[in-house]
């Protein structure tokens, strides 16, 4: 199982390393690259996943609620910690709340539990993405009117994808295939841009990154345990929530911080060190799940 986890995580660091190597000899326009990703490729991926997966959302209402509480509750739990340590909350809290449920969570759950875990993985991905591009953006820019948030491509794509999913609207296969191909560009592009950005990081802040690598999964798991009991989650849904709660910060946190100019160097440190930390955290969490939550035959 550890080998499977490494096979999922190592490509993340390989792509980021390629970005760092390229950035070492060139000076690419990372801000323009991130804007293109945010306004085109990421919305295409979100819509394609929501519209094409056809996840049975009604059967996963409790899991969706639990996922939302984990995301929002992590921010509430760690807010006094950030204040006590005199950390900038707009920089520190979003990476602690919004985890890597897309490019790490979905493949990790499928690798660990098989294709039957895909609906749960997609539901949690939907919840995290919607909260990230509503509550998360409001945290960075609290004076932004709600109607401006609703005009953002990522939010519109999420709402449209949910409408297609819940309404059972059939879409042509060629159309979805094109969206999947274009949307698939965003994940490696985000990782590549993160690698380039890492060249400018002052590793004098490595302590903050290490702190985040511990607090991000810890806060999620502390919330997940009572939620599993309270919402009576069991079996695969309980296991999926455990994995979701322990995921590291999403690469999208860096992309958003870059766009809003919210200390992207520090956010990149939180993201990179947090994902490095997952090489230790995720094997431990999966071992616990297989032993006590969802034993495999």
TrEMBL record:
Gene3D superfamilies per record: 1.20.1530.20
Membrane topology of this protein: Multi-pass membrane protein
Predominant localisation class: membrane
Record's subcellular location: Cell membrane
Ligase keyword on record: no
Transmembrane segments: 30-51, 63-82, 117-140, 152-172, 178-196, 208-230, 236-256, 268-294
Keyword field: Cell membrane, Membrane, Transmembrane, Transmembrane helix, Transport
Recorded family membership: Belongs to the auxin efflux carrier (TC 2.A.69) family.
Protein name as it appears in the record: AEC family transporter
